[in-house]
Amino acid sequence: MPSLYAAMQKRRTIRRFKSKPVTEKDLLQIVDAARWAVSPGNIQPCEYVIVNLPRRVSEVFDCVKWENAAAPLSAPRAGERPAAYIVVLIDLMKKKSGGSTDAAAAVQNASLAAMELGLGAIRIEDLHRKRLKKKLKIPHHLHVDSVIGLGNPFEFPVAEECGDSVLPWADPDGVIHVPKRRLADVCTMNGYRFAHRYTRKNI
Ligand SMILES: Cc1cc2nc3c(=O)[nH]c(=O)nc-3n(C[C@H](O)[C@H](O)[C@H](O)COP(=O)(O)O)c2cc1C
Q: 189 CA to middle of ligand 1, Å?
């Protein structure tokens, strides 16, 4: 198993999947990982709906605004769709605002747990929420934060140190490259002064 640091470094958003189901056991384990996440005030407003019935999976797919994703991060091709979803909900009776912070931490746990199981994950916020709530009969007091698409990866994007642009790009083999800002560009020591930045030399 990779170290925790290596797992965090290697985790990538996966948008193309093999047409192979994900077991219920794995889906439950991923939700189980999500529920251990940090939560401001320990309120834990998140709830989860696992979707793995093919008809329901297809309905969730239709609720994602894939059309808004910019190339090369566009919609999965036919036969490459997520095999299952976890819908991340926020109970508005427990927390009226700020629940997305809880959800972000929960989704990060879920994504790393999926990775450990050999699965890929994508968090999607760009959704037809009304339609999704209706399809899945989600009660009024639960806000749909996002959905996590899951499956066996059919692509292996790589992260790289950022140059001028943070925009992901595809190489001639179709591999997605995801630029991440350099440590030297995001970190200062003992105050925010340029002089206190790490230089690339000493990283
Ligand atoms: C809150 C949130 C919402 C996101 N929504 C979408 C989305 O609607 N569609 C999509 O294709 N990717 C979505 N993503 C994935 C990001 O585009 C992705 O994390 C980013 O490109 C960096 O790639 P990485 O996850 O491989 O590091 C979302 C990520 C987060 C954290």
A: 29
